[in-house]
């Protein structure tokens, strides 16, 4: 039965406002549904879809760029200087012919060009074979780096083009055949997945180094498809490293599992029990877990069996206990010691010492839809106050002091506890004020950034790969893509050539051997 409409004459002013805002939200939702249905009808009829034009209110607010210092803006426009080659320069002398008599030599005029030589190279190794007196056959070993019918330089080219160049396997195979190589798409796939163990292991070592030595990490995720199913790719990193992992879950337990950096254990310790208390697990359940003689479990099967033995079967307490044991394992391995986890306010990332992105917080105010002139003016005033406060937070992070810290906290309260006479604005301000500790985490940790722009920049390569290839079909392909895209990003951050890195790992000719990237990441995090 349809609910009768309320008696408008009997409502108070505040009740009328709530009814009005609820009606506006319902109308907006119905408008979106109608637009979606029209698009579906057009698709079924084979009609051309209406072009999507984003409204001005959906544009980025520009708070981060607008609050940059003027000096940094001026330094963006740099004059182009001469390019210096990073490879040895070959010198060739060009002589002048038909000189008139009496000419004098005045030195040289230099003119440098850069060129690239691409040509196939096929080597047939004639390996000596000997028969020993005892009947055994001895064959001369292949050179270092040769373990199949494709050399390290070709493998390096294929991996670099696929992961850093973001090309496709069919186009890469066609390009190689144009060069004169006899290679199929299946062989290209084998090369891309053949060295996965080495790269996946190094990617895990990079994550461990970042979690042990980093003062903060920022995290984000994006959609990913694997084996024809929708999944999620999670990014973990900071200014010195990047790590990717694709799974089928966006839960907090999944994220905590990734933070174990390859370990599969569960640990019950003081950090685990404290995490359980913060999540509201009852003292009785915590006492049951703490009183058990078993406090460390090798894998998920052992942990689940332990919970069954203790009679912890309800989904809620069981999930919280599992998350606590995962956090205990993270801390037992020395990860995230006094480090901050910075996120965009997605619930699964709220672990440990958590901080929120200011750009995402301000975006909520930016996207409020208001209609009256007074409401628009109030909204813009709030945004301006947030922008000023954000700029001063950046200034504080550069030179933190105790008096200024207290002043910034009081100023935060004044901004987010103000009353504008517009319920939709005031309720949002109250919601942001509830996140005060996480938004002001920079006051206690000045080294952390105020936004997750770095994570969003990192994860774009995964989005590009998804648009190009759509989905991965094997676990080896997924793991290799995640590991090598993360390693390529890490190489860029620490100033290492990804091309030289691949050559060093695959046994190709390189000027110098690249040390383990985890050592370089640890050194930079500790600097």
Give me a quick take on this structure.
The protein has 527 residues and is an alpha/beta fold. It has 21 helices and ten strands.
Please identify the structural class as seen in this structure. Answer: alpha/beta
Helix content: 40-55%
End-to-end gap:
68 Å
Oligomer category:
single chain
What's the number of extended β-strand segments? 10
- Poorly predicted tracts of residues: 53-57
Q: Please give the radius of gyration in angstroms.
A: 30 Å
The total count of helices amounts to 21
Taking the sheet with the most strands, its summary is: 6 strands, mixed
Could you explain how this protein is built, in words?
By secondary structure, the protein is α/β, with parallel strands linked by helices. The protein has a domain at about 360-445. Helix content is about 50%, strand content about 10%. It contains 21 helices and ten strands. It has helices at about 15-45, 65, 70-75, 150-165, 170-180, 185-195, 195-215, 250-260, 270-280, 285-290, 300-310, 315-330, 360-365, 375-400, 400-415, 425-435, 435-440, 455-470, 475-495, 500-505, 515-525; strands spanning about 130, 135-140, 215-225, 230-235, 240-245, 265, 295, 340-345, 355, 470. The strands form three sheets. Strands 3, 4, 5, 8, 9 and 10 form a six-stranded mixed sheet that branches. Strands 1-2 form a two-stranded antiparallel sheet. It has a two-stranded antiparallel sheet with strand order 6-7. Helix 7 packs across helix 19 (about 475-495), helix 13 (about 360-365) packs antiparallel against helix 14 and helix 19 (about 475-495) crosses helix 21 (about 515-525). The longest helix has about 35 residues, at about 15-45. The relative contact order is 0.12. Residues about 55 have low confidence and may be disordered.
């Amino acid at each position: 039965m349809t609910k009768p409409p309320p008696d408008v004459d009997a409502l108070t002013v505040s009740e009328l406002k709530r009814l009005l805002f609820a009606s506006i939200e319902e109308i907006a939702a119905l408008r979106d549904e109608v637009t979606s249905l029209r698009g579906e009808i057009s698709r079924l009829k084979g009609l051309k879809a209406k072009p999507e034009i984003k409204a001005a209110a959906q544009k980025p607010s520009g708070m981060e760029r607008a609050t940059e210092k003027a000096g940094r803006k001026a330094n963006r426009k740099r004059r182009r200087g001469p390019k210096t080659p990073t490879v040895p320069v070959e010198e060739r002398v060009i002589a002048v012919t038909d000189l008139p008599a009496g000419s004098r030599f005045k030195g040289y005029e230099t003119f440098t060009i850069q060129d690239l030589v691409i040509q196939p190279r096929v080597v047939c190794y004639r390996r000596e074979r000997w028969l020993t007196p005892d009947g055994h056959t001895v064959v001369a070993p292949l050179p270092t780096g040769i373990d199949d019918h494709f050399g390290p330089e070709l493998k390096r080219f294929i991996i670099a083009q696929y992961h850093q160049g973001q090309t496709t396997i069919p186009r890469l195979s066609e390009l190689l055949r144009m060069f004169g190589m006899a290679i199929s798409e299946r062989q290209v796939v084998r090369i891309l997945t053949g060295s996965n163990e080495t790269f996946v292991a190094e990617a895990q070592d990079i994550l461990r180094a970042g979690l042990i030595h980093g003062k903060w990490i920022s995290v984000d995720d994006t959609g990913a498809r694997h084996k024809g199913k929708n999944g999620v790719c999670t990014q973990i990193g900071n200014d010195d490293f990047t790590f990717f992992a694709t799974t089928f879950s966006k839960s907090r337990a999944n994220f905590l599992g990734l933070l174990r950096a390859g370990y599969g254990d569960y640990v019950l310790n003081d950090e685990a029990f404290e995490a359980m208390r913060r999540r509201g697990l009852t003292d009785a359940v915590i006492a049951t877990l703490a009183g058990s003689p078993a406090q460390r479990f090798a894998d998920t099967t052992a942990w689940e069996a332990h919970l069954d033995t203790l009679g912890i079967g309800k989904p809620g307490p069981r999930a919280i206990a599992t998350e606590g044991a995962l956090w205990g394992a993270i801390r037992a391995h020395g990860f995230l010691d006094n480090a901050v986890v910075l996120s965009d306010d997605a619930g699964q990332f709220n672990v440990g010492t958590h901080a929120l992105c200011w750009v995402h917080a301000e975006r909520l105010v930016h996207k409020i839809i208001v209609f009256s002139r007074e409401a628009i003016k109030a909204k813009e005033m709030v945004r301006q106050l947030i922008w000023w406060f954000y700029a001063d937070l950046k200034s504080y992070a550069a030179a933190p002091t105790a008096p200024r810290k207290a002043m910034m906290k009081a100023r935060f309260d004044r901004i987010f506890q103000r009353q504008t006479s517009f319920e939709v604005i005031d309720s949002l301000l109250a919601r942001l004020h509830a996140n005060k500790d996480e938004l002001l985490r920079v006051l206690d940790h000045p080294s952390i950034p105020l936004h997750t722009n770095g994570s969003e920049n990192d994860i774009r390569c995964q989005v590009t790969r998804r648009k190009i290839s759509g989905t991965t079909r094997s676990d080896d392909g997924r793991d290799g893509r995640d590991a090598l895209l993360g390693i390529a990003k890490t190489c860029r951050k620490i100033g290492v050539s990804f091309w030289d890195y691949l050559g060093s790992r695959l046994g190709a000719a390189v000027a110098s051997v690249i040390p383990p990237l985890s050592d370089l990441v640890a050194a930079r995090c500790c600097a």
